[in-house]
Design brief:
The chain is built from one helix and 17 strands. By secondary structure, the chain is mainly β. It has three domains: about 1-35; about 40-130, Immunoglobulins (Immunoglobulin-like); about 135-210, no CATH class. It is rod-shaped.
Amino acid sequence: MKNRCQVFEKSIGLYIIVLIMLFYSCSEDKGNYDYKAVNEVIVTGVTKDTSVMRGEVLNIHPVIGRSLQASEEGLEYSWSLAGKEIGTSRDLAYSVPETLNVGKYDCRYVVTDTKNGMKYFVDFNVNVVSNFSWGYYFLCEEPDQSTVLSYFSSKEGTTECLHATKIGDYALGKQPKAIIDHFGNISSLNDYFYSFNIITSQGDNPVIMTNNG
């Protein structure tokens, strides 16, 4: 009986030693982790939806903040329109090509923190419209009966009246008759469309239809 008690006491002592070693190793292991708070990038000031005419410069000036300490050191930037990169500067100054089709484009601004590899994304939309968009239209006839389309934009700050004798590659005919406009909404795209027909009595293109976006 005495031997059994001695064995039992030795077993208890062994278990206690093992438990102490496990507790010590766990305590030491906790000290091996060094958690550092990430100084995250916070981007504001990018409008969700914006419009720009073909030929104009699209200017966007984002506001960049940090969650811990204000600093833009080590940041890289990328702007894309319809999946194509259009800028790598902090701010965007993009000259919209005259050849770019009118319509709404998905755009993205990416800020990369090169110190830790983290990327921050801002998605927005740009609606590209033609030079002739929202505003006032006048169909005029010159002394030689040629047609001139005059346009004054309703955009705030506009002071210049535009004049055109052709739409794209199509020359306006002679003896202007009418402008017929079409406006509607594409429910599937949650977007609008606007176009008009220019009708003349003479010329190679007596009816010209525009797509103003």
